[in-house]
Amino acid sequence: MTDLIDGIRKNRFAVFGRVGMDFFPDPPGTKTRDGQLFASGIGGSSANIAVGLTKLGGHAALITSVSNDAVGEFCVKNLNEYGVDTQYMKTLGGEFRTSLAVYESVLEGHQTVIYRNGAVDFQVTPEDVDQVDLSNYGAFITAGTVFAAEPSRSAAFHAFETARAKGLPVIFDIDYRPYSWPSAEVAADVLSRAGALSDMIVGNDEEFGFMAGGIEKGLDMARELAASTASIVVYKMGPEGAITFANGEEIRTGIYRVDALKPTGAGDSFMAGMLSGIADGLSVKDAVLRGSACAAIVVGRPGCAPALPYPDDLAQFLNAHPGPSEG
């Protein structure tokens, strides 16, 4: 536990995973089929986490690949503008493409359409990981999609081994996306292996349940991981809040209730907010609550990376909203 907290408090993170381009109809409330104007931004779980950390005052370097085209250039340009370190990003030609997401700022009948044919971010190799000087960072972060295909899967496991050898804690967001995987059986096996190698694991009830073989078994799996290999496990339950396992305790926390525009981006903002809270010296419980506040901010705004809060946004939100619901 101490090594994990000490690593996070360095506030320097190596983040492995995808960045993509997002389109969303404007104004909010417009369905994609009715869209005449579309706003743009960057997204992708790992990119969102990296952007969220830098917006909240941390340093984050993104390890990924982008396509050698205008979409890849868009992603790199936006990451740089947010302050994310892009020195470990590789540009590839050929038929590989940066992911594209088209989603709506609506709740009822919400649709997100993801284009990941020939996804370039799956082309990160173990040799690419070896180019990263992990000794410059306090913690290593990744999200589950990196394990969905080769060579990214081998690169991710290699990164876990390298990070642990250098004394960096491994932080794992399960982030299960079925469309990226060859089968549910492969996903369950690989994600469970990754979870067993992680010092901090964050996921929702469905993701833990998926790895455990049934949603009713997910909470027990979270408990077992916290008791055996992980120092902190966060089991998210949507509107019911979260249960965080740390130091032998089960910490229950609620959510900040807001009028949401969309369901996307909340988990990434939660992760960034929680980690920045620990980096700023908050207790685990208060850091989880900061993550919950950041998640509430993002679902109330269009976009993913553009919606992630800066410190002033977070302060204004907390001043304007009552405390979280009871966990």
What does this 3D model show about the protein?
The chain is of the alpha/beta class and 327 residues long. The chain has a single domain (2-320), classed as UDP-N-acetylmuramoyl-L-alanine:D-glutamate ligase (3-Layer(aba) Sandwich), CATH 3.40.1190. The chain contains 11 helices and 13 strands. The strands form 2 sheets. Strands 5-4-1-8-9-10-11-12-13 form a 9-stranded mixed beta sheet, sandwiched between helices. Strands 3-2-6-7 form a 4-stranded mixed beta sheet. Strand 4 (59-67), helix 3 (70-82) and strand 5 form a beta-alpha-beta unit. Helix 9 packs antiparallel against helix 10 and helix 10 (284-299) crosses helix 11 (311-320). The protein is globular and about 50 Å long. The model has no long low-confidence stretch (mean pLDDT 96).
Give a short overview.
By secondary structure, the chain is of the alpha/beta class. Helices cover about 40% and strands about 20% of the residues.
Helix proportion of residues, in percent?
A: 25-40%
User: What number is the mean pLDDT?
Assistant: 96
Number of strands: 13
**Helix-strand sequence:** HEEEHEHEEEHEHEHEHHEEEHHH
State the fourth-level CATH superfamily.
Ribokinase
- The geometry reads as globular
What is the percentage of strand-forming residues? 15-25%
- Under CATH, the topology is which? UDP-N-acetylmuramoyl-L-alanine:D-glutamate ligase
Q: Count of helical segments?
A: 11
Rounded Rg: 18 Å
CATH hierarchy, class: Alpha Beta
- Structure classification: alpha/beta
Order of strands across the main sheet: 5-4-1-8-9-10-11-12-13
Largest sheet: 9 strands, mixed
Distance between the termini: 23 Å
Unreliable stretches (pLDDT < 50, length at least 5) are: none
Q: How many distinct folded domains? A: 1
CATH architectural category: 3-Layer(aba) Sandwich
